[in-house]
Amino acid sequence: MREDLRQKLMTISVAAIADSNKQLSILDSALRPVRPGLKLVGPARTVRCHEDFLTIIQALDNSKAGEVIVVDSCDSTRALIGELFTNEALRRGLAGLVIDGPVRDLESIRELDIPVYARSFCPCSGTAIRLMEEQIPIFCGGIQVNPDDILFGDDDGVVVASEAELLSLIENAVAIEEAERELLKQINSGKPLVEMLNFKEHVKGLKAGTNSSLQFKL
After folding, report:
1. What's 184's DSSP letter?
2. Which of 10, 69, 96, 148 could form a disulfide with 40 if both were Cys (CB 3.0 to 4.6 A apart)?
3. Residue 67: which of 87, 34, 93 has the closest Cα?
4. pLDDT category, 153, cuts 50, 70, 90?
5. How far apart are CA 12 and CA 149, in angstroms?
6. Burial tier of 92 (Cβ tally within 10 Å: 0-12, 13-18, 19+)
7. Torsion of CA 203, 208, 213, 217, to 10 degrees
8. Contact predicate 56/84, CB 8 Å
């Protein structure tokens, strides 16, 4: 992905991008970061497997720095990654791991500076006897993820979009964050939030059946 886009995304929140386009694909909120406070930005390297992590080893070996390993575990109940795979991902310079299924070794993973998202946790690992599919369209968190789709995540969740979509939204997202910082500044100085919104006009318009949107008045 473009380095300038990656750097810009690292400075803003996922919420700001989501506010810029409320139709963006968002992974199921049940996929949560193992270690809060880290940001995820990178193109997807996709994996489909079930109760077996052999394909994830292959994906790690084929991966390029900056990529995100994204796994459709097909409702696996046993852990597909742990501290060894996560350390290898960090060594290879990957941007993160997103597992729609269980992981383990949470205490160790929480010490590492690489984002890992998982649906669940299990101390028992899967097998390593079936080589399945890599770099194909998969479903992760209820969303179709294609190879090279961009994943952008923080503690609020993970957005999946094309590079072109994110490029078209980035400037508006920056403006949204700037406006919200100003709102917070004025709230903290004692000004009511409702006075900084077109709340009354918006409600009046809705009642009248006209097109209306809630906006900042800064």
Report:
1. H
2. 96
3. 93
4. very high
5. 19
6. middle
7. -50
8. no
Residue 215 — pLDDT band, cuts 50, 70, 90? confident
Dist. CA 179–CA 170, nearest whole Å: 14
Kindly list the distances between the CA atom of residue 117 and the CA atoms of 25, 103, 170, in Å, as whole numbers in the listed order.
Answer: 16, 9, 24
Domains of the chain: 3-167 (3.50.30.40), 171-208 (no CATH)
Cα-trace Rg, the chain? 20
pTM: 0.92
For residues 88 and 80, what is the distance between their CA atoms, to the nearest angstrom?
A: 14
Give CA–CA dist 122/77, Å, rounded.
Answer: 7
Instruction: Quick: pLDDT tens for 34-79.
Output: 999 999 999 999 999 999 999 999 999 999 999 999 999 999 999 9
